[in-house]
Amino acid sequence: MSTMDIVPVGPAGDRPGSGARLREFLFRFASPLVVLSLLAIWQLIAMAFAIPVYILPQPVNLITALPATGRTLFNGWAVTMMEASAGFIIGNVFSIAVAFLVTVSSTARAGIMPVALAIKSVPMVAITPLITLSVGFGHATVVTVAALVCFFPTLVNVSRGLKAAPRGAMDLFHIIDANPVQTFWKLRLPYALPYLFTALRITAPAAFGGAMLAEYVASNAGLGYLIQDGYSRFQFILVWQIVVLATVTTLTAFSIVVWFEKRVVDSKR
Amino acid sequence: MAAIAINPKTSGRLRSLTAVLLVLAVWELAARLFAPGPTPIIPPPTILVTYVADHLGLLAVVVRPTLIEAVSGFCIGAAFSIVMAAIFVRYRGVEAALSNTLVLIHSLPMLAIIPLLVIWFGIGYTPKIVVAALATFFPVLNGALRGLRSADRSTLELMHLLNATGMQTLLKVRIPSSLPYIFAGLKIAAPQAVLGATVAEWIGSREGLGSQILMALLNYDVPLLWACMVLCAVMAALGFCIIVAIEYLVIGRRAEPLKAED
User: Fold this and answer.
1) CATH for A69-268 (1.10.132.60, 1.10.10.410, 3.90.650.10, 1.10.3720.10)
2) Distance from CA of B166 to the nearest CA of A (A)
3) Contact B19 A26 (CB under 8 A)
């Protein structure tokens, strides 16, 4: 979702008239209506054609099965959430530190940035097996993968952002003899915030998805493991519930970042 | 260095190259000094290269399915997303109606989709192609949307004055001006398609790089695991380079679009 270009859609050219209000209503509610009607169509098709549960369960069944699977779901979700959050924090802190290094040292920049730019768009989850080899099966691998997922997008964006401070302000800091650390905290970082949030919008959902993928290969706890386990034991309702839960979680993570972005970045302006 | 006048770009490249060589050298030395056993977890680069050279036949068999899946998924995903972007730009109501659904689909974790695709389409090429196509779809859609909207306002007004049809405006103005943005999207998407296909092969597959990687992990065949990872990375990088080459052929050395990153 991070790459989706969601252009605010409003009624084209507010012409006063009877059609305008209806059009505005349709534009605002079209999306939820489409999602809701998709759900309804899904439910109807699954019922009408008596589709077996392993191909397409009914949405209603996913809800009615919640009391039975709720505890398993929550425990798995909590594990994945912990791992993803730990990785998210470690990856971002580490990459902001490297971004600072890259900003102050041109040698570090020449050595690190080409590699970082090349690796940025490579989903780090693909190297999960290698990480498993080096740090072992379990939480360590999952956290490492989640941290790596966050590291490169944040590094590339923040290092660009750290250079976004206006020339005049930089000169002023130079004149008042601010040291690099002061310049970083008081000047460069505030100007880098919009860039940081661009990265976080990508990495917050990606950390969760990456953690799940790593769990599938190299863990015996968490939602990723539960998907694998649920399939091998033909618990298709559970698997579908996980799909929905994971989607809701990544969407929520994205929305939380956007919410913070609005608060923080707008208040700076 | 200082004695010879080197322009900054070349010197930057030199330093990057030095950095890469340095990393390789340190890797080689460290691997040989600290983990000399027969199967070190991190084998030195020279051993990897000789391993790949010795097992070219096997690796070719492993790479073939992944290559087919990634390339077909990429083409399908790119074609779909460009057509969809054109529809979105032409009919804004369609975008209003579909954008949330698309965001929903994009935020489905890959791991969540793949098992379902395996159930629906079996363990053949199809689920992997779908994953590669999905991985391609969103970056290219994003680029194409921005690109089609980037058309110069006064040119659009001129087309309007000339009484051009929507299709003419699309073909003569919007598509040409959108090309740099579309290529930026394709450049992001090409490695993603390779990696989507590879990860899709982790689940319900008996051939291809992905399943071979898992197999190697389970059998503790470290050199094979590394060789597969390196091949995966090489394929992703090659995909990127091919798009860059095509971009150069199509639009030449025109300026890159601003802010076509994330």
Assistant:
1) 1.10.3720.10
2) 17
3) no
> Which residues in chain B touch residue A246, judged by CB atoms under 8 angstroms apart?
108-109, 111-112
The tokens for A153 are 């997008």
Which stretches of chain A score pLDDT less than 70?
A: 1-31, 118-125, 267-269
How far apart, in Å, are the Cα atoms of B29 and each of A130, A228, B166, B229?
Answer: 20, 39, 63, 21
Q: B92-106 vs B125-149: helix axis angle to the nearest 10?
A: 140
pLDDT value of residue A122:
61
Residue A54 in 3-state DSSP?
A: coil
DSSP states of A89-139 as a string?
Answer: HHHHHHHHHHHHHHHH-HHHHHHHHHHHHHHHTS-GGGGHHHHHHHH-TTH
Question: Which residue, chain included where needed, has tokens 């992905």?
Answer: B210
- How close, in Å, is residue B118 to chain A by CA atoms? 10
Partners of A243 on chain B (C-beta within 8 Å) are 108-109, 112-113, 116
Break chain A into its structural domains and give their ranges.
17-51, 69-268
Give me the domains of chain B, ranges plus CATH numbers. Answer: 44-251 (1.10.3720.10)
Is residue B230 exposed (0-12), middle (13-18) or buried (19+ Cβ within 10 Å)? Answer: middle
Two tokens at A220? 């015996």
Whole-number Å distance between alpha carbons of A36 and A41:
9
* Tokens describing residue A149: 């997922």
- The answer to whether the beta carbons of residues A211 and A39 sit under 8 Å apart is no
Tell me if A118 and B101 make a contact (CB, 8 A cut-off).
no
Residue B236 to residue B233: CA distance in whole angstroms: 5
State the Cα–Cα distance between residues B23 and B25, nearest whole angstrom: 5
Q: Is the pLDDT of residue B212 over 50?
A: yes
pLDDT of B38 higher than 50: yes
> Residue B96 in contact with residue A13, Cβ under 8 Å?
no
Q: Say which residue the tokens 């979105």 belong to.
A: B88
Question: Has this prediction a pTM greater than 0.80?
Answer: no
- State pLDDT tens for residues B84-123: 998 988 888 888 778 777 877 877 888 878 888 888 888 8
